[in-house]
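[[Per-residue structure]]
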Amino acid sequence: MIPQLGEEEAQAAAEAVRSGWVAQGPRVARFEQEFAALVGAGHGVAVSSCTTALHLALVVQDIGPGDEVIVPSFSFIATANAVRYVGATPVFADVDLDTGNLTVATVDAVRTSRTRAIIAVHQGGVPFDVVALRAAAAEWQVALVEDAACAAGSTAYGRPVGTGATIAAWSFHPRKLLTTGEGGMVTTDNADWAARLRRLREHGMNVSAAERHASAQPVLEQYLETAFNYRMTDIQAAIGLVQLGRLAELVRHRRALATRYHELLAPIGGLVPVRDPGHGQTNFQSFWVRIDRKYATGRDEVLAELAAAGVSARRGIMAAHLEPAYAEVTPAPLPVTERLTRDSLILPLHHALTEDDQDHIVSVLGKLAA
């Protein structure tokens, strides 16, 4: 992934520096408001990363030791790690073969009386079935945290991902379509949660640093609970505000490139590319391809041959339960997760990708199919 950053972002960052307000300040507040409006949420709380957003989304719901939180293993390891940060137990559920997402059935298969929450990921920007999973979570009386790290610009049931979510976490890492370098956001319609989230990200202070500096009178702040330093800077927010204006065009361009990939890959048997689910549209944050048994070459050899041809492809999405950090965990069988992480790869998809690049990539894949 090559972030699309240009002179406008550079000027916005420079203006923030020249303003003298480089920590969390007015640009962060504006970025929160505009991003929340974009995804259809009542409140946005900017933080330092999606990992810290996930952490705070659990903290604000008082999830902790003794609680189980169902997560996909088929996700970046931060999804499961956030559960451990609050002292709860991550429970791995399997995913759908085509979307890489949790479903009501895969969650229900590992649900117990100790389940307090689910973290469902819109994997690679592919929206999970928000109607089905939100309804199930409500029926089971468990919290649903939406890990929308990759999903800015994706839609579900005709609305932006994030609309109607109880609480969602977002990433602005450089691999994402909308980037601030590092950074994240929590969105929610719950005003009380939003107020507490703002305190939690800023050491538990009852008044923000921006409000304190803006006051004409001395402010004697209080620290209401043990909290964190998870703030975003105004420099990052300045870049984010410019990126917000680019998002629709970025999504349009990536979807056009993905459509061309689909057309080029169609004649090659044994390769199954990611597609839109029936209930929504993906932003194609990642374009992964699953290698079927009909294909003549294994995934690792394909990656090696692509690298030899000058193509920077990557292995598919990781399976957290196979990593050393979770070696002591014995999950329920996860056959789809293990198949996807073993047999999939991510092809280059970025704003600088040309049709000639795509032709070259697909030609290599075509030769390996024989």
In short: The chain has a mean pLDDT of 95. The first strand starts at residue 43 and ends at 47. Residues 234-265 form the longest helix (32 residues). The chain is about 40% helix and 15% strand.
